[in-house]
Amino acid sequence: MPMHHRIVAIVLVAALALLTGCGANNTEEELAQQRLSVLKSEATSLDALKADLGSSGPLEAPGTVSIFISKNLINSALKGAAGVTLPIPNVEGATITIKQIVTDLKVGYPLVTIDAEATKRDLGATFEVVGTARLDTKIDPASPSQLLINVALEDFVPRAQWGPFDFKIKGFVNDIIKTKLNSELSNLASIKIPISTEIPLSLPAAQIPVNFPGAVAEISTPALNVSGHAAVSRFIVLPDGLHVYGTVSAKAGS
User: Fold this and answer.
1) pLDDT band for position 8 (50/70/90)?
2) Is the dihedral of CA 110, 53, 73, 231 positive or negative?
3) What 3-state class would DSSP assign to 117?
């Protein structure tokens, strides 16, 4: 073989090897980064919870109430998301199908994990997708008597592998990863729970007998009307669920 042909052959082989080894042809690095982000968020949330508990008053005190929203209750509500298919914004013919949304609550960190599949029709490709989200808990602005729990998407990473020349597959993978930037998918589910209520209490006028040694007397009590209002003031996230604390205000009249 002539020398220049050998040189060309060597260059082609080297170029092919470079293309084959250039960059990771899978998403393991992105999945590892996703796990690292979860750990960082957990640490940040734990520090914030410590600061909150150290700077504010007791959780339980006179004039306070509390309710518990268990992880099992939230997971039961989220089962309704199974099978829901959503279009991937700005990617024609691409959809994400939710298989399961499950809470994985940490101390102070309302983590949610998402098991899904992403499909692109023209490629005939379907990938498993690992998503992370968090429970965004707040009073519903449209209905102050309700607690609104939103599943807010933070990250979507597919488990995928592709060859050095599968540019369309790589492009689709990148589109999936970018879905976390789209407001259309930022809220995957919502749960509404009533947490603010009026507490009416009415007592009629009455005669209450009182016994003393050698005598019996009666004490008259006037009619009493009490109206109370309980409203949420704090949320604490623990592995077993959401602990919601509130205050009670009351106004009495006779």
Assistant:
1) very low
2) negative
3) strand
What is d(CA 112, CA 103) in angstroms, rounded to the nearest whole number?
A: 4
User: In this structure, which amino acid lies at residue 201?
Assistant: L
108: nearest Cα among 39, 44, 49, 151: 49
pLDDT at 219 over 60: no
Mean pLDDT in residue range 216-243: 71
75 is written with which tokens?
A: 């997971």
Distance of alpha carbon 223 from alpha carbon 121, whole angstroms: 72
- The per-residue pLDDT for 15 is 44
User: Could you tell me the pTM of the whole model?
Assistant: 0.70
Helix (H, G, I), strand (E, B), or coil: what is residue 214? Answer: coil
Contact 165, 176 (CB under 8 A): no
- Dist CA 247 CA 70 (whole Å): 21
Order the strands of the 197-203 sheet from edge to edge: 64-70, 241-253, 224-238, 197-203
Dig out the tokens for 166 from the structure.
């599968």
